[in-house]
Fold:
Amino acid sequence: MQKDIRVDQFILIFILHHKIMKKLRKILFLNYAVNLRSREVHRIKTLHHNCHLEKIKCKVYVWPIIAHILCRYYGYNGCWWCFREKDTNGKK
Ligand SMILES: [Zn+2]
Structure:
């Protein structure tokens, strides 16, 4: 039997189901928010009002290392407003 679940999705689903982390994310340094639909990564520290993070329903909060791994190896894209150094859309 083939395992269809991808490693990056497994990590994100794992974090998503720990809703208690939402309250603890500042303590746990979950400084990055990932939009699973658009595969876009937002940085909480430099969050811009154009990010509309409150409108993203399908999002999870991750550690910086996971955000960088997703951008580097899984084709995720940094937000142009708040995480521009990982943006690959070329909207410059
Ligand atoms: Zn953003």
About this structure: Residues 42, 48, 51, 79, 81-82 surround zinc ion (CB under 6 Å). Residues 7-86 form one domain. The mean pLDDT is 83.
